[in-house]
Specification:
There is one protein chain. With 265 residues, the protein is of the alpha+beta class. It has 2 domains: 2-119, Lipocalin (Beta Barrel), CATH 2.40.128; 137-264, Rossmann fold, CATH 3.40.50. Helices cover 19% and strands 41% of the residues. The chain is built from 5 helices and 14 strands. The strands form 2 sheets. A 9-stranded antiparallel β-sheet has the order 4-3-2-1-9-8-7-6-5, covered by helices on one side. The protein has a 5-stranded mixed β-sheet with strand order 10-11-13-12-14, with helices on both faces. The longest helix has 16 residues, at 227-242. The chain starts with a helix and ends with a helix. Mean pLDDT is 84; it is low at 1-22.
Length: 265
């Protein structure tokens, strides 16, 4: 039972972490909770006071969730209560007098005590495989005009040396992703692009429509998009790669997974 609830929590945190809210700079408290099947779960709770009310901002770095806002209500003893009904999750917490600790508990089938310390910033995930410069290749920003009138943007990495070079265009699977395919601090497309560009293969990776540099004013173009539309996006970026003099136009291919199989055929 606890395993099922924990899995539901992961799913809902990943979904809700995509939401964007304009809240006040929060007071941050970090710590960890021992959860069966998940072990030591690092967590940060932020307290944000706004004109509309007080929010508890939930961040769970290992689950890719950042600043998920939960509207808080106050009990008679001054404690704050906030819930995430989709995950059957409730927090009951209060700040100590000096606002150096956050005390209380989290409830999700079982009750887990909370004693978090005040921190100045959200903890960063360490992903040692993510490449760090300086890089032995050129990075170039690429912008391509889509036939439907919006822009797709990405990064072209070009190996050092004499070209033209073969090129791989990286295409994500189902769901909107940025050019690095960022998930829980991991950047798999960046890692692959770095490796290939070090061995003489250029790589173009791009933000999916509606994400990052590929923002669009017509939201319906994202909401109503089909696999055919996403395949068109990929074709636009393959064409964009071929426009660069360093690229061997006869040797441009695609790398990806999941829904890419539909596009490639």
């Amino acid at each position: 039972m606890m395993y099922r609830i924990a899995c539901q929590t992961v799913l809902w945190l990943c979904i809700l972490s995509c939401r964007s809210f304009g809240l006040e700079e929060p007071r941050l408290y970090s710590g960890s909770i021992q959860i069966p099947t998940l072990g030591d779960l690092g967590m940060t709770l932020g307290i944000s006071d706004t004109e509309e009310g007080t929010y508890i901002l939930l961040t769970v770095p290992t689950q890719g969730a950042t600043n998920i806002p939960l509207e808080a209500t106050f009990t008679e003893d001054g404690s704050m209560t906030a819930s995430l009904p989709q995950a059957q999750l409730t927090f009951v917490v209060h700040e100590n007098l000096g606002q150096t600790k956050l005390l209380g508990y989290m409830e999700q089938g079982l009750t887990f005590p909370i004693e978090f310390e005040r921190v100045n910033a959200l903890p960063e995930l360490t992903r040692p495989q993510n490449p760090i410069g300086p890089f032995p290749y050129t990075q170039r920003e690429v912008t391509a005009l889509h036939p439907d009138g919006f822009l797709l943007q990405g990064t072209l990495t070009i190996p050092d040396g004499v070209g033209p070079f073969p090129c791989a265009v990286m295409i994500s699977g189902s769901g909107q992703q940025d050019r690095n395919e960022l998930i829980m601090g991991h950047k798999p497309f960046l890692v692959i692009a770095d490796y290939l560009s070090r061995i003489g293969i250029a790589v173009l990776r791009y933000d999916d429509r509606g994400v990052g540099g590929s923002e669009m004013e017509e939201y319906d173009l994202l909401r109503n998009a089909t696999s055919v539309d996403f395949a068109t996006d990929a074709a636009v970026m393959v064409h964009a790669a071929r426009l660069h003099s360093e690229i061997d136009t006869r040797r441009v291919g695609v790398i990806g997974h999941s829904e890419l199989c539909c596009y490639a055929t």
